[in-house]
Write a structure and sequence with these properties.
three-stranded antiparallel β-sheet; 7 strands; 24% strand; globular; alpha+beta
Length: 176
């Protein structure tokens, strides 16, 4: 078993080849569920993994966990990091370190159901106006190769693409 960047290359190649041999195997569905725990605390679960969400004190939470919009930044950073590790391994590039700093700007009036005065030029919609990621990567290759890797990862990041394009969302209510 040959390992590169902490990944089993045989498994990685087998996964790619498996999808090539059966394209419908690449059509996946991911699931999550949440449970309110009082106040702004929420348990979020996917498969057997549970996270707690909360809001900072400035938004009347108890500051016991990251809030959902921080989790969006975390998800994007994690997705990029996984993309760098996987694609570098597939290209035979040994990585030594990946660090990503992320930040995004949200105007709170929309979330609070308010409309700020127009001269403040604040977004009326809740959600990120922009997200900035600074990727710091160190590998045993030249800068041009890492730049090519970077461009490829940005084009193939599922979380990044999800954030960039409209996604159809359906939310139905079941009163219990």
């Amino acid at each position: 078993m040959k390992m590169l960047n902490g990944l089993d290359l045989e498994k990685l190649v087998a996964t790619v080849e498996g999808v090539k041999q059966n394209w419908t195997a690449g059509k996946t569905v991911w699931k999550a569920n949440t449970k309110w725990k009082g106040g702004f605390k929420v348990w979020t679960c996917s498969r057997d993994f549970t996270l707690l969400a909360d809001e900072p004190e400035m938004l009347c939470g108890t500051d016991t966990a990251a809030n959902p919009v921080e989790m969006v930044l975390q998800a994007y950073g994690a997705c990029l990091t996984i993309g760098y590790a996987m694609n570098a391994a597939a290209r035979g590039i040994e990585l030594e370190d990946i660090k990503i700093d992320l930040e995004g700007e949200i105007d709170l009036p929309g979330f609070l159901g308010l409309e700020a005065p127009e001269e403040l030029n604040m977004d009326k919609l809740p959600g990120y106006k922009n997200i900035k990621a600074t990727v710091k990567i160190k590998g045993k290759t030249d800068a041009k190769t890492l730049e090519e890797l970077h461009e490829h990862v940005l084009k193939t990041s599922p979380v990044g693409i999800t954030l960039k394009r409209p996604v159809e969302i359906e939310a139905k209510l079941e009163v219990q």
